[in-house]
Design brief:
2 copies of one chain form a homodimer.
Chain A (H helix, E strand, L loop, with lengths): L2 H11 L4 E4 L6 H8 L5 E4 L3 H15 L3 E6 H18 L3 E7 L15 H5 L5 E4 L6 H12 L6 E7 H5 L20 H14 L3 E5 L6 H14 L2 E4 L5 E4 L7 E2 L4 H7 L5 E5 L23 E6 L5 H11 L25 H11 L5 E5 L7 H4 L6 E5 L8 H11 L5 E6 H4 L5 H7 L4 E7 L4 H9 L7 H7 L8 H7 L3 E5 L2 H13 L4 E6 L1
Parallel strand pairs in A: 1-2, 1-3, 3-4, 4-6, 5-6, 7-8, 7-11, 8-10, 11-12, 13-14, 13-15, 15-16, 16-18, 17-18
Antiparallel strand pairs in A: 9-14
Helix pairs in contact in A: 1-2, 1-6, 3-4, 3-14, 8-11, 9-11, 12-20
GO biological process, one term (chains A, B): small molecule metabolic process
Organism (chains A, B): Advenella kashmirensis W13003
Keywords (chains A, B): Thiamine pyrophosphate
């Protein structure tokens, strides 16, 4: 058995059976090992940003990591933007990066670069494997680290000689994640004191594990009993929502709107959440979304047991464990009338999306009414561009579809962002995934036109327009999709869009709809 | 005047009038400043790897830098692979990366990451601008650094507040590059002693400036007079070659072939070159391409005056400055007969390429006979994938065409690599560039099949085949190109290929030929 075999075996022992890959020569021994491990599903991406984004989408749905396989520093570099999103989402992910054999680094061959330096900003943990005998321990640690602290990007640098040399070290079975640390009684008391004394001026700010449906039930009971409000943090990886679940409002991204929403609050209690901040900064505007009069207390942090914290708060407040809560009723908006617009697309999707749909939202400025419109849709998951690095939508949908083959994935995708990782469409075709991509074809970085005005820089002139508008030529998304083997149709009316969505839902293959708005 | 204006002005003063950009919110003040500077040509790329690769191609041709404009850490990340190639090519490049305003970093907003750490491995120089008043000095330094040491990737991190705040510092005009340092007499003597005593066992290994046509004339005289051989190093950025120029063989990439070529040599004299190394390492094979009996001496290094070194060597050897040298004769191979194959494509291009064509070579394994076939073509430039990070061809061609609007650019492009940065085709259409892209459509990472065998891992099984073959579905390059506004035709015969090349040459617009082999 060589080091590559040992790595495969350890990943499989750790429950990782899916690898999103774009290998090169330095990874060939690992590729050969994969041939000996038919249990490992290999998914080829034609660009590394697809591999990392798909691994993110996969793990957001299954709550266990996939592996990636990337080629040296440049291959890692291509995957970094979506690793950034995965890191911000605290997605468990074992990111395997091949490197030259240790003895070859001295020659400074053309592809040599500092892989660890590149990996560090987008990883929670980085380790370079020393040699073949180091593989079982290092690989087990990478699996364990990926599941620690609420989810982590664990990057394992795998030199070619550690892959090809014989491994005589004993196998190591990765430990299952330990039980989540409980939140201290001191912090529970801090929270419940605030709730008792300030009641309706308290906000429970929920993120990650505290946003799971069962945690939201507890939060809703606490709010109902104390007059507090529950809100979701701004940037979320995944939200399970829709009819039959406890609804939750999200704090809006614009910092003024966030502050307005929190204006009445005296205390913000963070439960696996971060306080609102401006996505960007603007001259003369505040960077924090927290009003100055508002105290912020971290009650549970990433990797702690947020559910237990909410349970302990409810117990401490003496709340009846059977206290009724209000669940979201089924309420579809109905098909829109009038011309096709961004809002009309969102409304159409909200009206037609099936039960257990997975919505991947990279609609950017076009999706501003998405949460409101889909609030009463059948139960569904929504995955977000939480880290701000555009080009996540198509890969995320790809990974989610591989994770959940029995569910329909609907990717709401801005056109400018779609271009970053359009290669994902090929993987959708290769793997025959049930992904319906709706391109909001507005032929511009529409958000940036708004931002140009917002930073006080006025309207776009000639140079700026050439940088913000995707025209001359316009993109033909049907051809782009068809070129990668994905069926595609362009629509410019609500009726045609609705018909296409229904056709696409009736199949199990990838389908792209270019919605021209 | 704000900091963004000051940056524009300083770049323009430094001779930088082209900016390959994909901006975001944090760059909006710079975008607004570009509106006030119509002299700055802004070229939009729909993915950052296109921007960095195009800036590389531009500067390889004009020997002066372009600027890039990238959006925060993730935007930089997307551009890193081609920055790696530019760094390896020692291309002068001013890489401008926006960042959050300095006061906003404390909030750890979603897009925040360690930009400097990401930039370092792929940059020769990194500087973060402190504030608006720091802009003129920092920008001038970035221009100067980009032109230092034989060409450098100079990364300038530009916080949003440094862009929007008023700049009251005086303008700074970047210094022109100083005269190149001369090579010491000691090293010249070392070289000429070797040439005198070992004559035909000496290799002049030429790279970068020592490969320029006028330098090759000197090297040819030295070789003719002493019996030495001249060779080009393995990885080159640009080679001016063809009829009327001094021909030069390139050391092959496979390390065994490199060693065989150098087997007779006792001394290798490096002139702005690096000694041959294995592109990758293989079990039990040497990493260096230099035979053990061979002494390697660095005569001139990057940023030193290689031409002067060769001149001094010739003078020291008493070589007649008018000693005749043999120039390459015009000799086209003629159109091939038989089926379309990788070699047949190369031969067809060699037969039809016009004078002063710029050939961008990312044909990978399909281009193995390119140098041989085109040796006697009319004078042309050839730009190479020198750093090994695939996805350079289409962007490089884009930048070269912007640099040289009167010349035809022919991009010889492997299909797997083309997918990495296919968004470049849109920029070619937008800018109406005379780029002819020939896709070697073999529907696989063909090189990797060879490499799988070469590392001793045998033939591809099921998992490996799924990672190495780009089939099920095949890519339709015509649709991909047309989707981005580029005219395209697929061919599967030599005749059709030749006809298409001639049609494409007769126009001035981008054209893609999918050559199915």
């Amino acid at each position: 058995m060589n080091g590559a075999d040992a790595l495969c075996d350890t990943l499989l022992e750790g429950g990782i059976d899916t690898c999103f890959a774009n290998p090169g020569t330095s990874e060939m021994h690992f590729v050969a090992a994969l041939d000996r491990k038919p249990q490992m599903r290999c998914v080829l991406a034609l660009f590394e940003g697809v591999a990392t984004g798909a691994a993110d989408g996969y793990a957001r749905m299954l709550e266990r990591p996939a592996a990636t396989l990337l080629h040296l520093g440049p291959g890692l570099a291509n995957g970094l933007a979506n690793l950034h999103n995965a890191r911000r989402a605290r997605t468990p992910l074992v990111n395997i990066v091949g490197d030259h054999s240790s003895q070859h680094l001295q020659y400074d061959a053309p592809l040599t670069c500092d892989v660890a330096s590149l990996a560090a900003p987008m990883s929670h943990w980085v380790r370079r494997i020393n040699d073949a005998d180091d593989v079982p321990v290092a690989a087990a640690e990478s699996v364990e680290r990926s599941l620690a602290d609420g989810g982590a990007v664990a990057t394992l640098i795998f030199p070619a000689d550690a892959a090809w040399n014989a491994c005589s070290a004993p196998p190591v079975i990765p430990n299952a994640p330990p039980a989540l640390p409980q939140v201290s009684q001191r912090r529970i008391a801090l929270a419940t004191n605030a709730l008792r004394t300030h009641g309706d001026r308290v906000v429970l700010l929920l993120g990650a594990q505290a946003l799971k449906p069962e945690a939201r039930v507890l939060a809703a009971r606490i709010c109902d009993a104390t007059g507090a409000r529950m809100l979701a943090q701004q940037s979320n990886a995944r939200l399970e929502r829709g009819a039959g679940r406890v609804p939750v409002l999200r704090i809006p991204y614009p910092v003024e709107q966030a502050r307005a929403m929190l204006d009445r609050a005296s205390h913000i209690l963070l439960l696996d959440a971060t306080a609102p901040v401006g996505f960007f900064s603007y001259p003369g505007k505040p960077g924090s979304g927290v009003p100055e009069h508002c105290a912020v207390h971290a009650i549970s942090s990433s990797g702690e047991d947020a559910y237990q914290a909410l349970q302990a708060m409810a117990d401490d407040l003496g709340i009846d464990p059977n206290r009724p809560v209000i669940y979201q009723a089924l309420a579809r908006p109905g098909l829109p009338t009038g011309a096709l617009s961004a809002d009309a697309i969102v409304q159409t999707v909200a009206t037609l999306m099936p039960e257990q749909a997975i919505i991947c939202d990279e609609a950017i400025s076009s999706g501003r009414r998405l949460l409101e419109m889909t609030a009463g849709a059948p139960p569904h998951d929504m995955l977000f561009l939480n880290g701000g690095a555009i080009g996540i939508g198509l890969p995320l949908a790809t990974g989610a579809a591989i994770a959940c083959p029995d569910r329909a994935v609907i990717c709401l995708q801005a056109d400018g962002s779609a271009m970053y990782t359009l290669q994902a469409l090929w993987t959708q075709a290769r793997e025959n995934l049930h992904v319906i991509t709706i391109i909001f074809s507005n032929r511009s970085y529409a958000l940036l036109h708004q931002e140009l005005a917002k930073v006080g820089a006025g309207r776009a002139g000639q140079n700026a327009s050439r940088l913000l508008d995707i025209v001359e030529p316009s993109l033909d998304w049907c051809k782009l999709a068809q070129g990668m083997g994905v069926e595609a149709v362009a629509v410019d009316t609500v009726r045609a869009l609705a018909d296409c969505i229904q056709v696409a839902l009736s199949r199990s293959t990838p389908f792209l709809i270019e919605a021209r708005i």
